[in-house]
Each structure stands twice: as structure tokens, then as C-alpha cells.
Amino acid sequence: MESGTSNDTGSFILSHPEEQPNLTKKIEGGSAPSHYINRYHADHDVACAFCAKQTPHRRGYTAQMPDGRIALIGRDCASEFFGKERASSWEKALKAQEDRRARRRVVERAVASVPSLLVQITPELVSIERQCLDITCAITEGMAGRQPQVLRRDNGDWDIVADDRRVLYTVAAAAILNAGRTRRHHLAKALEALKKLSAIDATTDMSDKVVSRMLDLRTSLIADIESGLRLLRRCARFYTANNLKALSRVLASIDSGITRVDLKVKSSGTFVRLTDRGIRIEGFDGGYLREAEHATFPLPNLNELPSSEQILALIK
Ligand SMILES: [Zn+2]
To answer: Dmax over Cα atoms in the chain, in whole Å?
Structure first.
């Protein structure tokens, strides 16, 4: 099969069909194929085994005879000798076979890419994602009650427009604050998918059902890797001292449960610190004020994220 090329639609087209072993050069008149086993598009003339003149042609099929012989048949000869209907049913069956083979190959490639993907999508990366989502959710929930509408502006400037009903603000990558508690842990899902794929033995004959399931798994794996790494890149842009200072200015001016978010650099690492508003409780004896409290979250190192292009090149 080295003489063939696989194109994007997944069909496998031979360019030197005459090199196939055990070809029968001439098929006696009246004998019809049972089906096609492949198609060819040669850049030179090859001889048809079915017509008396062995018409030279470039496009055709390798036909399987009911007795096991195989022979080349020109595309036009097929419908001429056996009728359009039969020729097109053989063609359709071949196409279905090619599609099945192409889908299988995509799964095989995905399975083959698992070991190198597991070098990149590690439990450490999954825990970085979890930490990022923890901080982001804590901020979002801290602001609760007054969820500002987040507008993204890539120049990093802030526009704060306060009115009675809502506060608009923009900051580079602040759209991540839309992350809620139910946000999908994409890289965790990707790691799960990789483990499932690695359990597949692609050398055995997979049923169409298994192939379909694995193709779906591959699709969601790719989407999860892209989304997960995108979130981490946005977090890398968002969690800077300047951005958090700007966020704190907004929080102080709105009715938010947290009033300040800042970065704390310690010898043990960098932390994001949330400061809440404190609580005032009115009572018989005049009331009680709980002072503002802090919550701290470790900020993972986001400086050495793998590139999604590189990772996805492994599987695509
Ligand atoms: Zn012919």
C-alpha cells in the first residue's frame, strides 16, 4: 500500500494499482465482480482487465471476483458492462468501507498519541487547573449579590461605569470571573479521556460502535485540552498585581461581599488573598461587628504552560 496516498476525506487511493500482487490481467467476458476492494487514480495509463481492448485508463477500481481473483476495471467500463446501478452500488459499498477504515485510522492515531499526551497533560497540570478554578470561583462567589457584567478590553485599561443597577468593568482576561462552581474541569476530563484511550487495543478489530465512541472521546478530548489551556493562559494574564489592584478598586465601589483581592508573595509561594467586608449584626445591645476576614489561595506557577498547538499536533 506504499504507492497510495491518503487524502483528507479519508479515502485511500492507489497511484500504482498495477503493482498489486496476484492481479488477473484478463477477465473472460460475462464475469462480474462481487465488489470493489479499492480505487485508484494513476498518473499513467493502466490496462482494464474487463474489456476486449483492455482500454488504457487512469481512474478505476480493483475488483474482487466471486472466485477470489482480483483485477483492474476502468471507471467507465464498470457502468458500461454491468449497468449504472450495479456499478454505483459497488462504489457505495467501497466508499463505506473506506470511511470505516479512515475513522479507524483516526482512532489508531489518537491511541498512538496517548503516551506523549500523558507527558503534557499531567496530574500536576490538572491540579494547577483546580487551583485556578478554586481562586476564580472564590472571587466570583465573593462578589455575589452584585455580579458585575464583565467586558473584555485587550489593552488592559479599565473603564468603570457605576450606576444604580450594575457596574461595568473591563480588564484583560477578566472574563474568567464568569467561572462558576459548576465550571467544567477541562484538563481533569482530558486526563480521564486519555486513560480511557490508553485502555483501547487499537491492534484488534474494533467494532464500528467502539470506533464511534472513541471518535467522540477524541473530539471532546481535543476540546477539553483547548479550553483547559485557554483558561490557564487567561489566568496567567489576569492574576497580576496590577489587575488585582484594579479589581479591588471596583470591588470597593460596589456592593460586593469581598472588598479587596491582592497578591501575597511568601517564601512558600504566591497567594491570592481575598478580604471580605465583615458583617454587622444588629442586636438588643446595639449590635456586633465582625471585622473583615481574609481567605488565601495558593496561585500556581503559570509561567511554563504547555502550548495547545504543540499538544494538539500530536493527536490531529
Ligand atoms: Zn475496460
So the answer is: 112
